[in-house]
Specification:
By secondary structure, this protein is of the alpha+beta class. It has a single domain, classed as Aminopeptidase (3-Layer(aba) Sandwich). Strands 1, 2, 3, 4, 5, 6, 7 and 8 form an 8-stranded mixed sheet that branches. The longest helix is centred in the first third of the chain and has 18 residues. The chain starts with 5 loop residues before the first strand and ends with a strand.
């Protein structure tokens, strides 16, 4: 049996073909809306912004993990929608995406809203808690920030 190839991909919205965008949204909706039972507006308009970068891992062309980087005001980058397909969990995919995302972010400050049970995961990438925990869509979240290395 041949080992499966998992490719890393990075694209702006303008560079995404319709099938890929569909598959990325399906992964996000399958996990965030269906699995986590959070009916919320997944299409928030930020996917199409010129400064948004979509990063994903594809196995045989099918997305198995994804995140997006948004350009927030003031030169701050925002990582969000970090997701791994249930069948692909435990394979280090989220870590691989975070490493690549931080390479894309470079020397700019970066923020994210972590599901609180994942604070330690994000701390491994230099993020620190930057505000009080809050509940969004029934799930505890913690704001986190990573300053550029000096």
């Amino acid at each position: 049996m041949q080992p499966r190839t998992i490719d890393l991909r990075v694209a702006s919205f303008a560079d995404l073909d319709t099938r890929t965008f569909h598959d990325l949204l399906r992964l996000r909706i399958d996990v965030f809306v269906v699995e986590q039972e959070c009916p919320y507006p997944e299409l928030d308009g930020r996917d199409v912004e010129p400064g948004t970068r979509h990063l994903w891992l594809a196995e045989d062309g099918t997305p198995v993990a994804y995140l997006r980087i948004l350009a927030d005001p003031g030169g701050v980058e925002r990582i969000g929608r970090v997701v791994v397909a249930p069948a692909a969990r435990g394979g280090g995919h989220a870590g691989r995406l975070m490493t690549e995302a931080l390479a894309v972010v470079g020397h700019r400050p970066c923020v994210l809203e972590a599901q609180s049970h994942l604070v330690d995961f994000y701390a491994r990438y230099g993020f620190t808690v930057s505000g009080p925990e809050y509940v969004e869509d029934g799930i505890p979240h913690t704001p986190m920030r990573r300053e550029p290395a000096s």
